[in-house]
Amino acid sequence: MRIVIAALGMVWIAAWLAGCQTVPPAPPLASCTEATAMPVAAEALDGHPDSYVHRCVRFTGVLAGRVIHDRIESVYRFPTDSRVPAIAAYGATTALDDALNTRARVEVVGLASSCAQIAHDAPSGSMILGGCHVLLGAAITVTKLTVLDAAPPRIVDPASPHAELAREDLAAVGADARAAIDAWFAAARAHDLAKMRTLVKYMPDDIHGLTVPPETALHVSYFRYRGKWPARDVACVCTQASCDGQWPIALLDIEPQAPWPYSCVVIAPDGHVDIYW
Description:
Elements: H1 2-19, E1 38-39, H2 42-47, E2 56-64, E3 67-69, H3 72-77, E4 86-91, H4 94-99, E5 103-114, H5 115-121, E6 138-147, E7 165-168, H6 175-189, H7 193-199, E8 221-225, E9 233-238, E10 262-267, E11 273-274
Parallel strand pairs: 1-2, 4-6
Antiparallel strand pairs: 2-3, 2-5, 3-4, 5-6, 7-8, 8-9, 9-10, 10-11
């Protein structure tokens, strides 16, 4: 929380400085189309955001929860490495803004900016709805978003340097945690939303996406967390015929917004189940 507050403070200072600089006026968003967009590399936009403020651009990248990266490796580095190239994304419409909350390889058309400029242009606080609440650099207001691949991009090699989940024998799990895991997946398979709500401490308003198909085999795979955040182990069930070679290697691979071939729940240190958002 302190990091986010400090980042926001730096953004507002930068916004004040942005107001002292001369930038080209922002054209109408409707005028920023594929036909008028200037091709640019995501790395260039990230490295020199002030050079592109209020210019209509087009580029490809990996979208991950309102932040666009140059490559999939950057997605995995981003939570713990602020030097990773990243562009804060905002939607020009409500539908586009909602579409940004996922992971996909995308082509983006939009009006380039910077987090400082967005804070200056929209001081009402709307800037925190996009990636600028954790970034200080480049930003873009998306006018067209094209998903290039149906499956969300990810790394699946458990030996990857980005891996933070290690598979472990379920026998090592304590009895209380195992009971909570079994109860959760049984309720998820039965689509018993009322029961699911009683099993976790922090429940999102909409949990329909957390259920699993009725034919799901409840063979639980357990993963020890070995990352840099407070310890949170993970339990998953496969929702298709096999998940061999497809299990998650990191916590960001279990975010419920993406269509994974598995369903997972976090095991808190005190043994209760929780949802990773």
